[in-house]
Structure formats: C-alpha cells, structure tokens
Design brief:
By secondary structure, the chain is mainly alpha-helical. Strand 1 and strand 2 form a beta hairpin.
Length: 251
Amino acid sequence: MERWFEQSIVSTGRLPLFCYFVTLIVAFIATRINVRLIRAKVGWFRNVNVGEMHIHHVVFGVVLMLVGGVSGLIVSSASQPGYAAAACIFGIGSALVLDEFALILHLHDVYWEEEGRTSVDAVFIAVAVTGLLLIGLRPLTWDYGTPVNPAVLIVANLLLAVITLLKGKIWTGMAGLFVPPMLLVGAVRLARPDSPWARWFFTKKSPRKMAKAIRREERWRRPVIKVKIAFQEFLSGRHDLPSTRRGRRHT
C-alpha cells in the first residue's frame, strides 16, 4: 500500500488532490454526524448563534475555502506537503459549503426539507468528480484515435454535455465529461419528464414523448432513486420536514 501510494499519488503530484478528496469526505461525514446530533438535541451539541442570529456552517466553509485557496496560491511553488496542507483546509471548507448548497440555491433554510437533498447530491458529485481526477482521468481529453481537431472535439463534447444536462441526466453529464461516449448516449436518449428539455419540447409539441418519458421514469428510474434516497438518508439523516418552498413566490 505504501509503495502504491508513493508511486500513484506522491510521485504523480496528486498528493494535494488526494488530501482534498479525503478531507472532503471526512469533513462531510463529521458535519452530518454533528447536525444530526444537534437535531436530536444530544448532549452539548447546539447550533452556533450570535444573539438571535443563527450562523450556518456554510459561513465557516466560505472562510476556510478562502484561507485554503489563498494559502494554496502562496505555497503552490513550494513543497508538495505545504500545498497538500492548503488542500486539506480547502477540502474542509468545501464540505461545509456543499453541505448547505441547497440553502444557497434556494436562499432559504431547506436543510431538513426534501429540497435539502440537493446538498447531498452536490457532495456526491464533488466526491465522484474528484475521485475520477484522482485516478488520472481528465475532462474532455478522450482520445478517439481520429485526426479531428482537438478543439472541435472539445466544443462538440461540451455541446453534448449541455444537451445531456438539459435532459435531466446529471450523473451521465458529469461522468461524460471524463468519458465522452457517455455524452452521446445521454444526448440521444429520451429526456426525463421533469427536465427543461422535456418542458420545452415535449409538453406541448410531443405529448407522446412526454407520456413515454413518464412511463420510463416510473418503471426504471423511480426504484433507483428510492435506493439512492435510502442510502443518502442513512448517511445524512432524513429530509422529512414539510416543504416551505412550494407555493412560495420569490420577492
């Protein structure tokens, strides 16, 4: 294991990325344990308040990301251990920020509501992308073995990625940045019924496709989503509070 770590991580210059990857996961798990204990009112675990103001941990995350980012720029030309230490700080800050991503997205405290699952999704995506980078994959660098101009391939892949994401296939779109053939599959296949693509092209223009998308969603995707939600809630706690966003207008 030590030899593998030296050859695959340290010698390849991936030690900072490895430190970021590990601290992101550990800090997220630690944060979720902490907030679940706060929610259960266990012992001395309490929210951080200044007077009547509740200080969300995203605030501490932003500060740590700034510290880690600036420190990384300062020591980027220095030793790899110094850069790795800055990456650890940045990883902890990223976990705190992404854990409250849904609050930033909605500008409303939806942490334990259904919309709060978006935060867990954001962390999972960050971990997955970092893991792919760690094993050596790079986005938009797939070698097709063709004489096509690389710039043309990059633009084509980005276009396919946008289409795939608009079709509501987030995981396929993100993974496809590293394995572009997945983007072709995602862009060609039917859009999810609640995606922007379906609203633009299916709702009025093609009711048959919308009906087919709904059937496919209920038959194949819903069971997978239930398993994903069960795993998320095992890890991060139940997002079971009534939604305060539905029917609420932005002012």
